[in-house]
């Protein structure tokens, strides 16, 4: 299936893998790229050396296009931004802000730029800065979330910009992909579904949490500090939510409470102190599978639903 | 376009109008039914006499099927539930709970029952009780909201039950309708879009708020008291949110603070003390139109998108 997204990125299927911190490494990214989607390495809060090593590792594992997700609030954002230009990675996606100041440097390095946006205002801003497409992500996604949902956000972003729009958040199968196309998107980004890919190196405890989740198993914490995240309900999230609701509990201590919780979930599989980020479609994910099987399944479902129709995607 | 929903309700188009308290009266309901959708009268917290009068008024305005939305937390719920059975209204939708105890009485009166659900658990429960279909409503909708979004909720409900599923929340045009079909729904419920119908008797100030809203103009308040609602950001919602975040402010006073705010918005157009409930697609709604034009536009957009495809809806 060819869409604006497959043509833009030179990939086979209009599927981008979400850039999940502590999870999306060279192993997962190369597997998704080899499956014909776009694999993404998460630069999270890591320094340039660590990210460069993952990029080089990814290149030994695939000769297909892949990307790096740059978290704009990272303390190492400047050095990572320069490094990806030096490395000429095919694609950069960005999160948590406005990447306009890096656009010129990345374009000169031949990089395709797809910022994640949660509002029409940011979509218009990055379009003016010259990015190639936007990823409109609804708040049903895992990890950092905005207020708008995919169903409401995607058509409003489509109406607000002329560049291609990719839909993210709440998409776990071919039905979600076709819904995204109906809303005007030309592709999807999926995180949670790839979290349980065989090639994903996240802890077994994390995969188990996702595989056993129900529809109502996730919740949002962190609104009070201005950076809400969606995670699977656990001892940790319940404790956090309780402290968050207590306005006598100081912001600084609340901030401290969260430190290290992602690593503890992703690397240590610590079910007591870990924060297991996942989207609302965790309830639809019930099998660990190779990344290629996930991609093929989603595409087959989508193609079956769309049989006979000429979609302008 | 025939779907399971149009066949179930004997209507022309698979569109249900949302049961908006203080807004959805005989005027709006009859206009939507005359347009070929299913108009809904909101029973809100009103007593049986008031609702009966609206039903009878509606019958003078249309000979097409229409429905009543029964808010299960209403103090008058028992008498209203009996009255709709006496009146043999064609359709009942329910909100804010589990209507199982009324199902037998309503079925005996020949009423089609479509509860609004926000989780797969409630969907399965009402299916077992014998309802005809469910309306799976995502939290991007206006008014009372659940946690799950439409994109994540609808396919999970579709997988959980055998009865037809209607999608609600975040649907404002034909793109949303086709997205709903892709997710497995057989129809949509729309509230916000009908709020600005010519036949909607809500205050002009309310319509103006919706017409001038942007994508990020709504917010959710009331989570602390366990009944979150989505409304347009105003002086009132900001004040409420501030009190809500202050855990030293007592629940009882917070509850009191909200009393009368819906009526003040819908009837008085009080922009200082009113609570203007609306969904996230308010940003897509930019014109006051006759209900029939809204229905025809949505259907034309959806049919154009689906041209040539054989959808099993």
Task: Please explain how this structure is put together.
Two copies of one chain form a homodimer. Chain A has 313 residues and is α/β, with parallel strands linked by helices. The first copy, chain A, is built from 14 helices and eleven strands. Chain A has helices at 4-9, 26-34, 48-61, 77-87, 103-108, 120-129, 150-160, 174-182, 192-195, 204-211, 235-245, 251-258, 261-266, 291-305; strands spanning 15-17, 39-42, 66-71, 91-95, 112-117, 134-137, 143-144, 165-168, 188-190, 218-221, 229-232. In chain A, the strands form two sheets. An eight-stranded parallel sheet of chain A has the order 1-9-8-6-5-4-3-2. In chain A, strands 7-11-10 form a three-stranded antiparallel sheet, with helices on one face. In chain A, β3, α4 (77-87) and β4 form a beta-alpha-beta unit. In chain A, α2 runs parallel beside α3, α3 (48-61) runs parallel beside α4 (77-87) and α6 (120-129) packs parallel to α7. The longest helix of chain A has 15 residues, at 291-305. The radius of gyration of chain A is 18 Å and the shape is globular. The first copy, chain A, starts with a helix and ends in an 8-residue tail after the last helix. The relative contact order of chain A is 0.14. The mean pLDDT of chain A is 96. The interface between A and B is large, with 52 and 52 residues.
The tally of strands of chain A reads 11
The averaged pLDDT of chain A comes out at 96
Strand ordering within the main sheet of chain A:
1-9-8-6-5-4-3-2
Oligomeric form: homodimer
């Amino acid at each position: 299936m060819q869409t604006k997204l497959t043509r833009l990125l030179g990939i086979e299927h209009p599927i981008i893998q979400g850039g999940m911190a502590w999870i999306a490494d060279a192993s997962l990214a190369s597997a998704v790229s080899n499956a014909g989607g776009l694999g993404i390495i998460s630069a999270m809060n890591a320094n340039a050396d660590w990210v460069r090593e993952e990029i080089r590792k990814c290149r030994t594992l695939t000769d297909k296009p892949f990307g790096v997700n740059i978290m704009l609030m990272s303390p190492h954002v400047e050095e990572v931004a320069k490094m990806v230009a030096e490395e000429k990675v095919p694609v950069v996606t960005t999160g948590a802000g406005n990447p306009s100041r890096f656009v010129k440097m990345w374009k000169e390095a031949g990089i395709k730029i797809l910022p994640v946006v949660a509002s029409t205002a940011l979509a218009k801003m990055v379009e003016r800065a010259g990015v190639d497409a936007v990823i409109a992500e609804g708040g049903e996604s895992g990890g950092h979330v905005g207020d708008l949902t995919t169903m409401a956000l995607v058509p409003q972003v489509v109406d607000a910009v002329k560049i291609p729009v990719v839909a993210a958040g709440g998409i776990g199968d071919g039905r979600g992909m076709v819904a995204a196309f109906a809303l005007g998107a030309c592709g999807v980004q999926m995180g949670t579904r790839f979290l349980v890919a065989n090639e994903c190196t996240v802890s077994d405890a994390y995969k188990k949490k996702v595989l056993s989740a129900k529809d109502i198993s996730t919740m949002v914490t962190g609104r009070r500090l201005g950076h809400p995240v969606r995670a699977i309900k656990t001892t940790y999230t319940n404790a956090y939510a309780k402290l968050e609701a207590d306005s006598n509990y100081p912001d600084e201590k609340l901030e401290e409470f969260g430190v290290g919780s992602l690593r503890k979930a992703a690397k240590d599989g610590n079910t007591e102190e870990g924060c297991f980020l996942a989207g609302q479609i965790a309830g639809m994910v019930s099998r660990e599978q190779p990344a290629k099987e996930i991609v093929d399944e989603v595409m087959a479902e989508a193609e079956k639903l769309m049989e006979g129709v000429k979609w302008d995607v």
